[in-house]
Amino acid sequence: MQIVVTAGKGGTGKTTVATSLALALQERYPVQFLDCDVEEPDAHILLKPQIKEREPVYVNRPKIDEAKCDYCGKCSEACQFNAIMVIKDKLVLVYDELCHGCGLCHLVCPKTAISEYEVEMGLIERGTAGGMEYLQGTLTVGEPLATPIIRRLKEKIDQKKVAILDSAPGTGCPVIETMHGADFVLLVTEPTPFGLHDLRLTVDVARTLGLRMGVVLNRDGVGDRGVEEYCEKEGLPILLRIPLDRRIAVAYSNGVPLVLELPEWRERFREMFAALAELAEPERR
Ligand code: SF4
Ligand code: SF4
């Protein structure tokens, strides 16, 4: 089962929820934790994994042999990312920061003028954290594309385990890549107008991908009822409420997961998992 934990914006408690869910479940199930926030992975601060393997991630980039090129423009027409431009009879320009390394330009070139070279653009690390398997991806500083690393990370998902994917915040390509194919999306938000605004956007993305969802309301009790009213109207279940509690904030700032600081929360996270499992696979029950 794949559960994606995400949030419309940073600072809503997404990693707190993802790590505590994993720690609560690992006592009962085989668990894999994947930190897919590859631009800024931070779950390791809470889970303190022992890293045992490191694997670089490469992408292919096109290289143009101008001696063979007749500037026909077919590569530029084929590229869906506007990453290659042909200046008639003069020059072929490749914009590395836009290139997704899909290789299409190489395939369509009638003059075999495009070869490919590999660029290391990130790292996958694998190890253990307590009783669970831990994986994280890290994008090399200066590299623009997070999605190839997330894709490679997700190739390592073990279907026999409960995989918890800590996504990047927001609604960009890294979030969509992380959500794609998930069994359930947990949306962490807070009861404020900002929380509501970002929640709406994330819900739209998850609905477009046809995914089942539930909400975790963090810092419950502050702000207003806007998020609750929205969830009622949209039929989104609120699966867990975490109050604004100084002990949780202090534990987080000290790098201590919620369920280790306050063990009574383990059962609440397990109850949330039971509820979301029902929602994720109702036809099996
Ligand atoms: S498709 Fe090949 S020959 Fe045509 S412009 Fe691109 S590199 Fe040159
Ligand atoms: S590899 Fe793909 S994304 Fe990159 S320039 Fe070629 S067609 Fe465009």
Descriptive terms for the model:
binds iron/sulfur cluster, Alpha-Beta Plaits, alpha/beta, two-stranded antiparallel ribbon, 285 residues, 9-stranded mixed beta sheet, 11 helices, 33% helix, single chain, Rossmann fold
Describe it.
The strands form two sheets. Strands 3-6-7-2-8-1-9-10-11 form a nine-stranded mixed sheet, with helices on both faces. It has a two-stranded antiparallel ribbon with strand order 4-5. The two termini are 15 Å apart. The model has no long low-confidence stretch (mean pLDDT 93). The chain has 285 residues and is an alpha/beta fold. The longest helix is centred in the C-terminal third of the chain and has 16 residues. α8 links the parallel β10 and β11. The chain contains eleven helices and eleven strands. α1 packs across α11 and α5 packs parallel to α6. The protein has two domains: 220 residues, 3-Layer(aba) Sandwich (Rossmann fold); 47 residues, Alpha-Beta Plaits. 41% of the residues are buried. The structure holds iron/sulfur cluster (SF4) (2 copies).
